[in-house]
Amino acid sequence: TQLLEQSPQFLSIQEGENLTVYCNSSSVFSSLQWYRQEPGEGPVLLVTVVTGGEVKKLKRLTFQFGDARKDSSLHITAAQPGDTGLYLCAVSTGNQFYFGTGTSLTVIP
Amino acid sequence: EADIYQTPRYLVIGTGKKITLECSQTMGHDKMYWYQQDPGMELHLIHYSYGVNSTEKGDLSSESTVSRIRTEHFPLTLESARPSHTSQYLCASSQLHRGGQFFGPGTRLTVL
Fold first, then answer.
1. Which of A88, A92, B20, B37 has the fewest CB atoms within 10 Å, i.e. is most exposed?
2. Domain that includes residue B82, residue range
3. CB B108 to CB A96 under 8 A?
4. CATH no. for residue B64?
5. How near does any CA of chain A get to the CA of B53, in Å?
6. Looking at the 3D structure of chain B, how many domains does it have?
7. Residues 6+ apart with CB under 8 A from B23
8. What is the pLDDT of residues B84-102, one digit of tens each?
């Protein structure tokens, strides 16, 4: 059973479009992280959200933690080719971090 | 800027060889982790450490071993590599669980 489900699995959009990707679970978490990974590289931490309903912005990226702290969304405004990559959500439980299945985003110029 | 390093970046070896993948961090983080990841897929935890002389196995069964003799160094060793070990290996460190992890660039291993 996958602890974190991300959707969609794949997304291909034109430059300038908006998009939202989701990270869902049936469990409650004290915090959740979002990462972006480019091919052949390690994931890079984008943000950590800790409070139910919290919204954080990073330039054109908006992250929201669900009120019940079971899910999260990432919204990108006016996507650019540089946003292309694998977006991963992650949580820590006990002694370990668990990662979602990932959303592979391609932004076409 | 995170300072976590992995060497080599790419490695192609024959079946049966012993290899060690190196990972070092200069941030003084107590916690370090090794993950295995196939291209575009999710990360699977294979080992982690909470400090010097502390190592644990993760959820993914692995034939590798790790050691943590110094805070900054967390090498992973495969005693006898097999083609099924072909994958990307990512090292990470963290200080607090809620703060997320910092990853190295990864080692892309191919076993022929």
1. B20
2. 21-111
3. no
4. 2.60.40.10
5. 16
6. 1
7. B4, B5, B6, B32, B34, B73, B74, B75, B76, B91, B104
8. 999 999 999 998 756 789 9
